[in-house]
Amino acid sequence: MEQPLFLAPVFQEKIWGGDKLNTVFGYDLPEGKIGECWAISAHKNGTCHVENGPYKGKKLDELWANNRELFGNAEGDVFPLLTKILDANDDLSVQVHPDDSYGLKHEGELGKTECWYVIDAEEGAEIIYGHHATSREELSQMIEEGRWDDLLRRIKVKKGDFFHVPSGTIHAIGAGIMILETQQSSDTTYRVYDYDRKGDDGQTRELHIKQSVDVTTVPHHDPKLAIKQTNLGNSSITEYVRTPFFNVYEWLISGVTTFKQQANYTLVSVLEGAGHLVLTDGKEEYSYDLAKGSHFILPNQIKSWRLEGDMQLIASEPGEQA
């Protein structure tokens, strides 16, 4: 019987990182300011490897290349999704990402639409989400003149908030926020503004003004969220977003809940609690321990599964274009 693919995270040092990936999730972190946990990734800048079963030690990009049956023989040159946990100990740069067309033409990789589930936020914490410019010319002028307070749209956030961040959206995660991010598998970021701070080399970090003006959606429009919640006994499933690239859900498990496959494969992260993933082949049951900070993929051959325990999980699956 096919097993779930449990993955070892890859950690990324960032100028704005902290230590919550250790203190909250218990990860054994390398030295430095660790800002990102690439929890499920086949991207060349941080590829996870499998920790269990017949594919133990294999990297996710290898499985995508050589064992496409695990993913329902889905098409595409690269594994399309990336799950991260971000610990913003300081403000992230104000940034924007291209769409697929611009990203492939100029950077040789996919664009980046993403979404955020706020795991935790200090009181008063804010994100930058969108802008107030009414035309591309006004956007360019406001950036050139450094009118950041006029340009940038700030929103206070709290634990449990969810944001859809399509490509072309100017955005930044503020200090004191921890999020789980589901995104297209891309590492292309155009910095609009970085608070004039200096990196470890004493230099201000590179900005990408021309590209940012090129790809920003003007004027900004908040994408509409059609959040749906379904109760299953004492458990619940919340569908946060459906996009061409990914669909994202929260599974709140209390007791025993059974799921049926809805897509070629499913990505899952445990944010709180503990329990078990139970699979059956009709004769025998196979149980896998789940703990806070576990990340795994349910491959195509697993058509149904059972979750037992008290847990909060975020799950995603490829959308129609992924």
UniProtKB/TrEMBL annotation:
Keywords: Isomerase, Metal-binding, Zinc. It catalyses: D-mannose 6-phosphate = D-fructose 6-phosphate. One of its GO terms (molecular function) is mannose-6-phosphate isomerase activity. GO terms for biological process: carbohydrate metabolic process. Zn(2+) binds at residues 97, 114, 171. The gene is manA. PANTHER family: FRUCTOKINASE, TRANSCRIPTIONAL REPRESSOR MPRA. The active site is at residue 191. Belongs to the mannose-6-phosphate isomerase type 1 family. It comes from Vagococcus intermedius. This is Mannose-6-phosphate isomerase. Residues 237-317 form the Mannose-6-phosphate isomerase cupin domain. InterPro entries: Carb_Metab_Reg_Kinase/Isom, Man6P_Isoase-1, Man6P_isomerase_Firm_short, MPI_cupin_dom, PMI_typeI_cat, RmlC-like_jellyroll, RmlC_Cupin_sf. Binds 1 zinc ion per subunit. Its cofactor is Zn(2+). The keyword Metal-binding applies. Residues 6-104 form the Phosphomannose isomerase type I catalytic domain. CDD domains: cupin_PMI_type_I_N_bac (cd07010). Its EC number is 5.3.1.8.
